[in-house]
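Note to self: keep these together.
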Amino acid sequence: MDQQIDPATTRKTASDFPQELLDLFDGYVHGRTSRREFLDRAQKFATAGVTAAMLLEQLRPNYALANQVSADDKRIHTDRITIESPQGYGKVRGYFARPAGAAKAPTILVIHENRGLNPYIEDVARRLAIAGYIAYAPDGLTSLGGYPGDEEKASAMFSQVNTPKMQEDFIASAKWLKARADGTGRLGVIGFCFGGTSTNNMAVRLGAEVSAAVPFYGTAPALADMAKIKAPICAMFGALDTRVTSTWPAYEAELTKQGIVHEAHIYEGANHGFHNDTTPRYDQKAAEDAWSHALAWFTKYLKA
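Structure:
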């Protein structure tokens, strides 16, 4: 008998959903499954009180929850800054956050998931500012007007962007950030999902310009390119996210072969997206532990 979903109105967690449905949603989020196919296949989990469409809404992000650090927190300064990206789309907009005061600080590029610069990623930038870093989160959807505030629209827009040009926007953002006069010259990169994969690619593209990289559930760069990596890599994975986590052994073997400092944290019972606290896939224990490791990694390689 198929597991059914109770139509509770409290905040949902992964344990409220069958793993099969969570895996189906992962396919939808990453474009392997259409909305119609998701709804058709999710119908088996529907009840009289909860339709397949309602299940989809329950699984979507609730960005009202993305506010661990308020934008008007007096400990930080935030801004929206547009920078030049001559090799990309010409210009890229982004969200900027830094500790209040005039002291210099290390810099960290924050790369979003495959929906653009949403409120969760902005909050991640603020969390880094609270921790003593200058953070910049570019919006890969700038060329199409920027993150639209709607997940369906963001998904459609993301598929229209030229990925190599978007990556050049990220490169331009990293170089702008690293060169800031209020920075220390040390650059870290952190990213989630698509941004995790992009973080790995930034480590390849920028080589020694990156002092530390923390990819969350990102796939590995081409093994043939990994000799270009100079940054210490701290990778985060969810054990249930087998599509991505299964790529780690080969990645780790090549990092070891190349003599690149690295470590990985694979969280049992955690799904893809476990750090994003606006969705039911959020795993508080795993997210908090992974964040503590990320900050320790940046402290070691950016502040020491």
